[in-house]
Structure formats: structure tokens, C-alpha cells
Design brief:
elongated, two-stranded antiparallel ribbon, 363 residues, single chain, 18 helices, alpha+beta, seven-stranded mixed β-sheet, Beta Polymerase, domain 2
Length: 363
């Protein structure tokens, strides 16, 4: 590794996911660094840019990678924000690693490539086990969400029995009730974009957290299969969320609770309409046009095609037929059709009739 004058003389280590993923021979992602024995003043003097709020984190002047001062933390209140941090120059690397969530994320690598593994994280990586670092895990409810997300990403990893038990305890004592919807959504969205999202839902259901963080959400085997297929076929986040809500009684309520993006809420509302329409035994031009209108497909054709792709995960869909029908409807010059109306009140009727005729010709 080339000499870096900005960190020359500092005790620095790569920590967390970058070390874990290297051990798993996965593509390198962002690197997080921990600095031992330095003060905020020294980091600033070296040109590092402070960005931390609750504790000192700095951006490297050139690479913009994050360098955090080694720290310890102590529970001072409820929820995932209820912590006080200590970042004195006497905090050791081992103390910093001990405050992390999982052993596989508590491995450090020095500039020379030497691994520092006081919590046997390497062994758990090799055994494909997700195990909590220590009792402090239960002080931060976000760690349940992260654990669930990791199972969706690392599909050959299993959760240690004692970690599963601890998650259940955290739910029982009400620790997860302190989670804010925005934080839940952040982890859910990342989990939906993992290799096997169903595993994330399995963890949340197993420990009892799902009903606390996603009130009204409906679980089912069909839904779990659907979100996994959506992941395999590369569907968008909004499509995956709609499939996640496949058996949720009121997806709009859940989307609002989670502060999900508007496009996710819209897709979750429209997907049941599409699935219901596709279930009609004898499709007619009137059925097709009614669905296109309900889904605002003429104004938002890309979203409608995406809805069809999501529906195709659950049932058989001839997307090419629907594209052909949508193209026929969109070929109508609504302005010209409107000018043929005898009164303003007739405009909508005339335009719709023109579209229906074009659709009938396309059948």
C-alpha cells in the first residue's frame, strides 16, 4: 500500500464490512476506518474534514473515506439514539470492536494487512454464523433490523441460537418500540434489494418484531416467494414493496406508517387492481381500457409496464400483449378526438370511445 502522508504516524485500521467481505472474497465496497489514539484536534490539523454529529467522524481530504475515532458507548436512554459516547485517546481498538453489532463485523485489518480479531469473527465468517458481539447488542434495536437484513444478503449464513433468543427478548421488553419509521424503512428498503428478502421477513416474524415495526403487514408463503423472485429478476424497489404488501389488508396505511416513497405507496395500491383484472377469464377491450384508466397508464406507461412485471412474479402475464394494447390506446390523438365533440360535456366520452375503438381493432 502506498504511503499516505495524511495518516502517516496514526494508528489506523480498516474495520467492519470491508474486512468481512474481503474474507468472503466478495467485491470490495466502501471502506470504513477507525483511528486509535488520536484527538479531534489532531485530525483537523491533518486536514481531515469533520462530519460526525454524536461522535467524531472525519472525511479523508483526498479519498473522502470515513475515519472514525475509536470509541466506547454507554446506554443512556431508550431506543437506538439513547447512547453517550467516549472518544478519548485512551480508547483501545479492542474496546471499539466490542461495541459493534456482530462478530463478523468486528474484525479490523491494519495497514500492513494483519487481522485483529479479538471476538473470533473470522471463525464465524468461516462457519457462516451471524452472532452478536456481546450483551450490549440488546441496547440498540436497529441491530435486529440489520441482522434481518444481513440474513437476506448472506443467504448461506445462519443466526446463532443465542442471538435469536436475544432478539426475542428485545422485542418482549419493548426495545423495538422506540424505532422510528424512517429508520425501519431504511433497513427494509436495503433488505428488499438483497439476494433473498424473504429471509429478512422470516427473522422479523420469528422474533416478533414484524408486528411492532410493520403494523398491519400481512405475511404469507406466496408473498415471500414473490419478493425473492422480484430480487432475482431485478425489479424496482417500488415493485418489491408492492409485492411485500401482497397480503396486507391496507397497503396505503402501511406505506404511510413507514414513510415509504410515494412511488412505493402507489405501486402497492395499484398492484391488487392489476392482479384482479388479470384474473378475468375472458379479457375484453373494455376490461383492458378500464385497467389502463385505473392505473393512469396513458400518462405513466413505464409505471404500468413495471406493474405488469410485478404481477408476472405472481401470475402469468403476457406483457407483450399489454404493451401492444397500450400502444394502440396511446396512438389516439386526444386533442383531435376532443375537437369532434359537440359539447364540452361530451369530450371525455368521445375520447374514451376513440380509445376503445383503437383497442378493439388491436385485439
Amino acid at each position: 500500500m502506498m504511503q499516505d502522508p495524511f495518516i502517516d504516524g496514526l494508528e489506523v485500521y480498516v474495520v467492519g464490512g470491508a474486512v468481512r467481505d474481503a474474507l468472503l472474497q466478495l467485491p470490495a465496497g466502501d471502506r470504513d476506518w477507525v483511528v486509535v489514539g488520536a484527538s479531534p484536534e489532531e485530525m483537523a490539523k491533518r486536514g481531515f474534514i469533520p462530519v460526525g454529529g454524536d461522535f467524531p467522524v472525519f472525511l479523508h481530504p483526498l479519498t473522502k473515506e470515513e475515519y472514525a475515532l475509536a470509541r466506547t458507548e454507554r446506554k443512556s436512554g431508550r431506543g437506538y439514539k439513547g447512547f453517550t459516547f467516549y472518544t478519548g485517546t485512551d480508547v483501545t481498538l479492542e474496546e471499539d470492536l466490542k461495541r459493534r453489532d456482530l462478530t463478523v463485523n468486528a474484525i479490523a485489518r491494519s495497514m500492513s494487512g494483519e487481522l485483529f480479531d479479538p471476538l473470533n469473527g473470522v471463525k464465524d465468517v468461516q462457519a457462516r454464523v451471524l452472532r452478536h458481539v456481546g450483551p450490549a447488542f440488546e441496547e440498540d434495536p436497529v441491530r435486529i433490523l440489520r441482522l434481518a437484513r444481513f440474513t437476506a444478503r448472506f443467504v448461506d449464513f445462519a443466526i446463532a441460537p443465542e442471538t435469536r433468543a436475544l432478539c426475542k427478548k428485545m422485542v418482549q421488553v419493548g426495545e423495538v418500540d422506540a424505532l422510528v419509521p424512517e429508520r425501519v424503512w431504511q433497513e427494509l428498503a436495503r433488505g428488499l434489494f438483497s439476494a433473498m428478502p424473504s429471509r429478512m421477513f422470516g427473522v422479523l416474524v420469528d422474533c416478533g418484531a414484524s408486528e411492532r415495526v410493520m403494523p398491519g403487514w400481512g405475511d404469507s408463503e406466496q408473498m415471500r416467494l414473490a419478493v425473492d423472485r422480484a430480487a432475482q429478476t431485478g425489479l424496482s424497489l417500488s415493485a418489491r414493496f408492492a409485492l411485500m404488501c401482497l397480503h396486507t389488508q391496507d397497503p396505503q396505511v402501511l406505506a404511510k406508517h413507514l414513510r415509504a416513497p410515494t412511488e412505493c405507496a402507489d405501486m402497492s395500491r395499484l398492484l391488487p387492481l392489476v392482479l384482479s383484472a388479470l384474473g378475468v377469464s375472458a379479457m375484453t377491450p373494455e376490461h383492458v381500457l378500464a385497467l389502463l384508466e385505473q392505473c393512469d397508464a396513458i400518462r405513466k406507461p413505464e409505471r404500468f409496464i413495471e406493474l405488469l412485471a410485478a404481477a408476472g412474479v405472481v401470475t402469468e402475464v403476457s406483457v407483450e400483449h399489454w404493451k401492444h394494447w397500450l400502444k394502440a390506446v396511446m396512438s389516439i390523438d386526444a386533442g383531435a378526438a376532443a375537437r369532434s365533440a359537440q359539447s364540452p360535456q361530451q369530450i371525455k366520452v368521445v375520447v374514451r370511445q376513440a380509445r376503445l375503438e383503437a383497442l378493439t381493432a388491436a385485439f
